[in-house]
Structures are given as C-alpha cells and as structure tokens.
Amino acid sequence: HPKGLDGHSDADALMHAICDALLGALGEEDIGHFFPNTDPRWKGVPSRRVLQEAARIIALRNGKRGNRDATGSAQAPKLYPYIAEMKKCIASALMVAEKQVGVKATTNELMGFIGREEGIAAMAVASVDLPE
Asked: How far from 28 is each of 19, 33, 54, 127, CA to CA, in Å?
C-alpha cells in the first residue's frame, strides 16, 4: 500500500497481535517487554522472527500451542485477498498447520482513524496448554 506502516520492526500489526496473544496465554507480559522498541537488536526485524521467538518461549515452558485466531482491520488496502498467504506465513513461523491459524479481515466502514486510513488495527486470541 502506498501509505505503508511505520514501526520499530517491520510493523506487521497482525503478527504482533498474535505474538501478544501467545505471550498472554502464557501469563507473560506483552510484546514490548520481550521485544522493546528501545533495543536495537529488534530494529527492522521481520515480525515472522518475533513470532518464532514467541514459539521458542512457549517451547521452553513445555507448552503446547493450540489454535490462534486474528482479525486485521484496515480501510485500505483490503486485506481479504491476502488472507491465504497471511495464514501460510503465520503457520510457517509458528511451525503449525495452516488449519490451526484463523485470519479474518474487516474495515471500519470509514469511521475513526482506521476509516480515515491513518492506521490499522489487529486483534488476536490464542491458546497454550501448559504442564501443571
């Protein structure tokens, strides 16, 4: 999209939301705690790498990743045509089957900062089974 996104890493809001959901399912702090924008190691890093790191953290805790579901909200570009590729990238980063990744897209019907094309939003939920 000509407007693009600005962020410390590659600004992939959907992958960041999934990472936050996975960390939350572990009872951990948010993505900024593990991957702070003040740490130059994470400058320009692909969000795929951040997701891989979240998967590593889960493995260290002997967790089993369950399903994850995410919704991207953008007025433009329309995200729906990219959902299959997004699922493929997310599943690959987390080393899970594509059927374990839900991705949906919506717009804000021209309302708010999303509707004015000033930004996008993403929400995600995830489950992780941890040993007792």
From this structure: 11, 9, 11, 13
